[in-house]
Write a structure and sequence with these properties.
This protein is mainly α and about 300 residues long. The protein has helices at about 5-20, 30-35, 40-45, 50-70, 80-95, 100-110, 125-140, 150-170, 175-200, 205-215, 225-240, 245-260, 270-280, 285-300.
Length: about 300
């Protein structure tokens, strides 16, 4: 292997095998280097840390599956529904092939106190691209009328796929991948037909997910609960000796109003945004105001 690309791929494939067998936490960079037949220093020239190598292995797996799925689109002899069926089959087969790796990742994550693979593990832009392509796939199969329900269908397919993959991985039941792919399409047919016939409002408003298709699902600047952010903001305001008594009092009153409003069953947008606007003028609260603005937008959009 002479090229840098070939060397990196060799390292990724080797690391994938070791991570699948032992788990990431139990595999050292020294061990990976020895199996690759290179020095530890050479390994660090390609990957600065084991965490970076782990992310690269995950990206390698995701891209390899994605490339196989996209390749089906070039098979002109297949109908849109046949392509979808074949793509489901490829996805299931590849998860089965990589099940030891994903199980090892999950076990490592649980031992470290988190839930495993998250959106942060996905390659940059992959979610937005996948959503666009799934939207077009649904239109190709069911017509443009299905467009408002694209994200609902995507989430329902994701849920079904996850359940079936768990059955495959756990080997609870003997299941044929091809039949599973067929059943997924049959179920999707039923869901799409019902949505078009009943014409109910989509569960997730289009104004939310249309933005996601362009920009990807927002990860958000913070995972903190609004009450924790308000607590941090109150502490900063109380400790800021440069604020006048009037500004401090009005800011604390605005926080109190927001806390009360957030306990209501149907929080009022005008109250929350009005109080947040008051706080945006208070020095030292810019970070919390920005995070709360993002959280409130998502929080309130689901209730309108």
């Amino acid at each position: 292997m002479n090229s840098i690309t070939d060397k990196k791929k060799h390292i990724l494939v080797t690391a994938l095998g070791l991570f699948s067998t032992k788990g990431t936490s139990a595999t050292s960079m020294q061990e990976i280097a020895e199996v690759c037949g290179i020095s530890k220093g050479s390994l660090y020239l390609h990957f600065k840390s084991k965490e970076e190598l782990q992310r690269s292995v995950i990206n390698y797996c995701i891209h390899s599956i994605y490339d196989k799925i996209v390749l089906v689109e070039s098979e002109q002899e297949l109908s849109p529904k046949d392509k979808l069926r074949k793509q489901f089959k490829i996805l299931l087969e590849n998860f089965l092939e990589l099940k030891e790796f994903f199980l090892a990742q999950l076990q490592d994550a649980i031992s470290q106190g988190n839930s495993g693979l998250t959106m942060e593990n996905c390659p940059e832009g992959m979610l937005a691209l996948t959503m666009k392509q799934f939207n077009q796939k649904m239109i190709d199969v069911y017509g443009p009328e299905i467009h408002p329900y694209t994200l609902d269908l995507a989430l329902q397919v994701h849920s079904m796929m996850g359940a079936y993959i768990r059955i495959i991985v756990s080997e609870i039941l003997p299941m044929r991948i091809e039949r599973m792919a067929e059943y997924l399409v049959e179920t999707l047919d039923d869901l799409a037909e019902a949505k078009l016939r009943l014409e109910r409002e989509p569960f997730i408003p289009q104004k939310l997910w249309l933005t996601w298709m362009e920009e990807g699902i927002p990860k958000g600047p913070s995972k903190k609960h609004p009450f924790l952010l308000l607590k941090e903001m109150r502490q900063r305001i109380e400790e800021n000796t440069e604020l006048s008594d009037r500004v401090r009092t009005e800011a604390l009153e605005s926080i109190l109003v927001m806390e009360h409003e957030l306990t209501e069953i149907n929080p009022r947008r005008v109250i929350l945004t009005g109080m947040l606007s008051n706080l945006s003028a208070v020095p030292g609260t810019e970070e919390q105001v920005g995070q709360l603005s993002h959280l409130f937008e998502t929080y309130l959009s689901w209730r309108e």
